[in-house]
Amino acid sequence: xNRLMITAATAALVLPAAAMATDLRMLTSYNMNATYTKExxxxxxxxxxEASGGETSINLSGPDVIPPxxxxxxxxxxVFDILYTHxxxxxxxxxxxxxMDAVSVDPAKVREAGIWDLVDAxxxxxxLKLIAVPPLGSSxxxxxxxxxxxxxxxxxxxxxxxxxxxTNITExxxxxxxxxxxxxxxxxxxxxxxxxxxxxxxxxxxxxxHEVAGYFSKPTFGQTYTYILxxxxxxxxxxxxxxxxxxxxxxxxxxxxxxxLDGLAVQEWKELEELGMQPTEFAPEDAExxxxxxxxxIWKLGMEKSPDTVARMRELAQENGLTE
Length: 324
What we know:
6-stranded mixed sheet, alpha/beta, D-Maltodextrin-Binding Protein, domain 2
């Protein structure tokens, strides 16, 4: 009888532990209604939950909990488990994340070239594990402007919202960069604090900027990536199967993201025109140097913050035809 009781008690302790689900807490640097949160962060959450059969769940919080420029440290410290962000939001800590925006969009080649592993090792030194580097389309950026472009340089005298990623190109086009998170842009445009905003190719409508700006620039330029990073200790505490699941879903996200967001960008431009916005073109002499201006500025930013790693990163990209 005693042995039966001991066996039953042991089973009662072991079985619930074996079936215990993993609940993770995730931060996003973008507003909860932003396209990048919905189509990247939330899609990753859905992919993980489906692949795990519901055994791994991820609860998402937005920048209203912790502002975008202050999110890296809490995730590194384990206050949150996962962070969805852009490298420009933590250039005060490292330039490696932002430097990725100078690398051409080809997720498989980025991995084959050793760039993914280099970035992973760098973030590990910050207490973080790289899960995915999803590109936000095959092209990266545009300007949202109150007034159309007239002449060259196309942003002459305008105050333009941006992160550090955009500083070189905005200045090269005659504008004055204003460091500002996306959540503050609507009111800043509405009050005339800024004359436009540098942004990706998705989410202008979701953010409501069409209500306070009349134009989006053409041609688009550059490329941009976001990051899914995980607290390294938390990642290492998971069993190998769960680690592999997160990394595999991260890889799948990278492989499918550009095409998805390209299609959403085309659809959004049509919707913005229906809402009254219009495309405005850079002069040919400006248009031909857009990619060079943005890439040059991004590499420079990265080198200023993290010279050794970014120099190696650029070397690998050049060797593999992934940057100019």
